[in-house]
C-alpha cells in the first residue's frame, strides 16, 4: 500500500544586498515528496447473493437460506457480528417481452416469469492472512458474486503524518541546496500546498450505490474501522420493483 504526499513551498530567497534592496519581493518554489509502503492490516469485502424463482416467496426463501449459510460460515470463521452487515436488498420481477400490439394496460397484467432477489453483504476482515480461505469458503456457502475488495490500513493517519514529515524535510533540503548555489539565504515559507494519493486499493462493482462503494463505506463506519475522518451512521438501502 502506498502513501504519497507532495508539498509545494514558496521560500523567500533573500540576496546579500543592502537593506534597501532587500525590499524587493523575491522567492523560489520547491517541492518535496515522500512515499511509504505499508502492508494492509484489514480488508473490506462486499459480496452478493442472488436467487431466482417463479414464485416470490420461494425466491425470497432461497435467498434467505443462502445468506444464512454465508453468515453461519463467517461466524464459524471467527468474523465478529459487528464486522458483518447486509446492506442492499433488491426484489425484481422479470417479465416476458411482449412486442405485440396489445395495449400497455393489457401487457401490464402479464405474470412475471421469475422473481429475482438480491442481497449484498459487507464484511470487514482483520485476519488478512486467512483472506483467501475466507473468500473461497464464502463462494462455497451461498455467495455467488464478489462485488468489491478494498485493502486498507488501520493506521492511515500515522503513515500520512510520517510521509508528510519526510516530504517537508525533502523540500527544505532542496531549498537549502538551491539557495546555497545561488549565493542567497533561505527565508521563511510564504505558502504551502499539500496533496496525497493512496491509502487503500479498491476494486468495487455491484448492485446499486455507484458500483458498491457506498456499501463498503457503510461497513467501515459501522465497524468503526479506519481513521481517515469519515463520519456518519451506516445506512441501509432497499429497492423493490
- Helix % is 25-40%
Largest sheet entry = 6 strands, mixed
As laid out across the biggest beta sheet, the strand order is 8-6-3-5-4-9
Distance between the termini: 41 Å
The radius of gyration over CA amounts to 28 Å
Question: Which structural class should the secondary elements be placed in?
Answer: alpha+beta
Low-confidence stretches: 1-17, 210-241
The H-and-E topology, N to C, reads as EEEHEHEHEHEEHE
Got a strand count? 9
Oligomer: single chain
Count of separate DSSP helical elements: 5
What's the shape?
A: elongated
Q: Roughly what fraction of the amino acids lie in strands?
A: 35-45%
Mean pLDDT: 75
Q: What would you note in describing this structure?
A:
It is elongated and about 85 Å long. The protein has a 6-stranded mixed β-sheet with strand order 8-6-3-5-4-9. Strands 2-1-7 form a 3-stranded antiparallel β-sheet. The protein is α+β, with helices and mostly antiparallel strands. Helices cover 32% and strands 38% of the residues.
Amino acid at each position: 500500500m502506498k502513501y504519497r504526499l507532495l508539498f509545494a513551498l514558496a521560500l523567500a530567497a533573500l540576496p546579500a544586498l543592502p537593506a534597501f534592496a532587500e525590499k524587493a519581493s523575491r522567492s523560489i518554489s520547491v517541492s518535496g515528496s515522500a512515499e511509504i509502503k505499508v502492508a494492509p492490516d484489514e480488508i473490506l469485502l462486499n459480496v452478493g447473493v442472488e436467487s431466482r424463482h417463479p414464485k416470490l416467496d420461494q425466491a425470497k426463501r432461497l435467498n434467505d437460506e443462502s445468506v444464512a449459510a454465508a453468515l453461519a460460515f463467517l461466524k464459524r470463521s471467527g468474523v465478529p457480528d459487528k464486522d458483518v452487515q447486509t446492506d442492499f436488498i433488491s426484489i425484481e420481477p422479470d417479465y416476458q417481452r411482449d412486442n405485440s400490439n396489445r395495449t400497455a394496460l393489457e401487457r401490464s397484467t402479464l405474470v412475471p416469469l421469475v422473481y429475482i432477489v438480491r442481497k449484498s453483504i459487507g464484511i470487514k476482515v482483520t485476519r488478512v492472512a486467512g483472506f483467501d480461505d475466507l473468500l473461497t469458503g464464502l463462494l462455497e456457502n451461498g455467495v455467488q458474486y464478489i462485488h468489491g475488495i478494498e485493502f486498507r490500513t488501520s493506521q492511515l493517519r500515522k503513515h500520512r503524518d510520517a510521509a508528510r514529515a519526510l516530504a517537508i524535510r525533502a523540500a527544505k533540503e532542496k531549498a537549502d541546496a538551491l539557495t546555497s548555489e545561488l549565493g542567497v539565504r533561505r527565508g521563511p515559507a510564504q505558502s504551502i500546498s499539500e496533496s496525497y494519493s493512496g491509502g487503500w486499493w479498491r476494486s468495487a462493482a455491484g448492485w446499486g450505490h455507484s458500483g458498491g462503494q457506498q456499501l463498503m463505506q457503510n461497513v467501515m463506519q459501522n465497524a468503526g474501522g479506519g481513521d481517515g475522518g469519515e463520519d456518519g451512521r451506516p445506512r441501509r438501502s432497499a429497492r423493490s420493483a
